[in-house]
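Researcher: Batch entry, complex prediction.
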Amino acid sequence: MGLGLTVGLLGVLILSHAAYSTIQYRGLLKITEEEFSGPPINVVLELILGFLLCMYAGLTVPGNFHSIHPSSEENRIVSLPENLDFMIFNHRGRVALSDSDMKLKL
Amino acid sequence: MVTKLDETELKRLESQVEHGGGGAWEYLCLVRKLKIRRSDKVLKHGLLILNDPKKRSSIGDEEWTLYEQVAIAAMDCNSLDTARDCINVLSKKFPESKRVGRLEAMLLEAKGCWEEAENAYSSLLEDNPLDQVVHKRKVAMAKAEGDLLKAIECLSKYLKVFMADNDAWRELAEIYVSLQMYKQAAFCYEELILAQPTVPVYHLAYADVLYTLGGLENIQTAKKYYAATIDFTGGKNTRALYGVCLCTAAIGQLAKGRNKDDKEGELHTLAAKVLEKDYKYRAPDKLPLLTSTLKTLKLSS
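Model: Structure tokens for the complex:
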């Protein structure tokens, strides 16, 4: 958790630095009156690195993944809920369970 | 839907609670969430919580939900006095509540006073004609009285209005199966499969109904639905595996003399293999029984 968060923060810092560098580069272009041909290599490298770090943090920090396979242990349906809306009370439990000695204390 | 994970969790909590390990409230919550009928245990542990002022106050507002849960469990266990007490507490807290009124009517049902219960439900319906639970209770009452045809009639009328109620479709299918009206039951299960195509239990039930109906075409379809069940459960559903084997045997018998489909030759041998593996792992002493059964079906290789 701590590691993932630190990596994520680092990624965000690098991305902001890339943004700052881009703004600076645009300013430089205006001053030297050159045509824009492509972003400078250090910005591209920073973007890639920041993206990777942020992706790592995004995948590890929120927790584990759940399975989407219908046949996995956590998704495999073994039984349906009993249809309690339609439950009826005249069954054999009426005889078997009637002598409950517990009472609600009021 | 009860998944494998839920089931293991429930078993763990149940044994923990039964051996006095605590966690009764979590157990009761899980039972309520999964809609499982464990009335005797709910009654026992629910009363333990409700009778202890300290535990009762620790669950806060959920207390009233627990009263309701225990009341229904008490009716199911025929401790009508306890149910009466719970309902009294609830009606003191929530006078004029429809939900408590429903409980009162259910208590009449549990006592066997059908006419009074019917009147109570009718008056509840007058106030709110779209109360689904009350409609369902009326169906259940018809079922309890043994009048299954009336239950079917009520349920069909209910389903005309509330078509998306899967539980009701399932109930109707089960009633039809109990009356051996398999064609109608098959229709209900088709409806259920359309509504929830990823629930293997519906596929399994539909396949069972089709297999019971018989006839080459139905059994071929049944086999496909058994195969779908195997697909959704990862081959861990023994009934579906047996279903595939039985269907293959039945198709072989019905299609005797006609040209056999070579394409279908693989499925049942695979199913039989999985069955054998499963039995070897879980019940080794029953394995000879399985092998002889498969041999009589002429499926084992």
